[in-house]
Known about the structure:
Strand content: 15-25%
Strand order of the largest sheet: 3-2-1-4
Number of helices: 5
Amino acid sequence: MCAELSLLCANLGKIKESHLVFDPCVGTASLLLACAHFGAYVGGSDIDSRAFAPRDGASLATCFEQYRLTNRFLDVMIGDISHPCFRAFPLFDAVICDPPYGVREDPRTCRRDELFLKYSESKLPSHPSLTLISNSEDPLTFRWSRRLLVMEKTSEYEENGTDLPEALSSYYNSFRLNIFSKVGAIEKEIKI
Length: 192
């Protein structure tokens, strides 16, 4: 994500000095850098370990060094957001992320006329403890755009004892297996 949009996201997220911010899809950490710029302590996770691999001597930590924000960078870890590793109590002041594109739907499984459906608010993610306070469009091309959603926690989440719906759980499991099989193949190629 570009620096300007990352700063805008951090601003919309009301990130302040000493906030604790988590990004579950950290990637290149552009959102974490923007949040650290506003004084937050930041950390995150990503399902793909390649996001953390140093390239040409640079790593996520060196990005924070470049902007003199190392005192705000906690750490990152390999993690799967469909299987949270945190206890069920309030921990973060904000969760901010730019999810990977193309994860929701494999175009090969859609009919061509289904690929270009009109935008509908009914398809936006929702949660009983969150209220949508901003919904902005970021045009990428003439035909494609992405949405910037800002949600605010309005009530404490109460576990109802149910797991993810079976279809959603199946989707996350197949996505996770796909990612880890690719990582395993790459590790074998480079003999890690």
